[in-house]
Amino acid sequence: MIHGGDFMFDFAPVFIGIIFVFIICLILFSIAKGVSQWNKNNHSPILNGNARVVTKRTAIRGGGEHRAYSDYFVTFEVGSGDRIEFEVKDTEYGMLVEGDTGELSFQGTRYLGFTRKKGKIEFDT
């Protein structure tokens, strides 16, 4: 009797197991990275400073046969000339206009708010 195909019956469960472990590791890594960033933000000081809205952008995820989600990002230029991009809520995104100046408040990579000021602001140098 010829035993054909035994390799596939032996290999398939091992291959599926390896893929399963790989996916679980990716999920655990993503969770650990998110918790680490959250913890780092919580331990960062809350910073306030003069800033200007430089640009705005959106990123769309999903679509097709699934629901589409929009992520909103705003780039601020602070007094030192550095630019920082934050993800903001849709309502905040709609209220900000490129060229707006005011006081930016953030904690680590977490956007806390932007208070618009009339007229030109002086950057601390």
Characterization of the model:
The chain has 125 residues and is α+β, with helices and mostly antiparallel strands. The protein folds into 2 domains: 1-43; 46-116, OB fold (Dihydrolipoamide Acetyltransferase, E2P) (Beta Barrel). Helices cover 35% and strands 38% of the residues. It contains 2 helices and 5 strands, in the order H-E-E-E-H-E-E. It has helices spanning 6-43, 90-95; strands at residues 46-62, 68-78, 83-88, 101-107, 110-116. A 5-stranded antiparallel beta sheet has the order 3-2-1-4-5. Strand 1 and strand 2 form a beta hairpin. The termini are far apart. The model has no long low-confidence stretch (mean pLDDT 89). Keywords: Membrane, Transmembrane, Transmembrane helix. This is DUF2500 domain-containing protein. It holds the Pfam family DUF2500. The chain crosses the membrane at residues 12-32. InterPro entries: DUF2500.
Order the strands across the largest sheet as they lie in space. Answer: 3-2-1-4-5
Largest sheet: 5 strands, antiparallel
Mean pLDDT: 89
What structural class is derived from the secondary structure elements?
alpha+beta
Number of DSSP strands? 5
Task: Draw up the topology in text.
Blueprint: H1 6-43, E1 46-62, E2 68-78, E3 83-88, H2 90-95, E4 101-107, E5 110-116
Antiparallel strand pairs: 1-2, 1-4, 2-3, 4-5
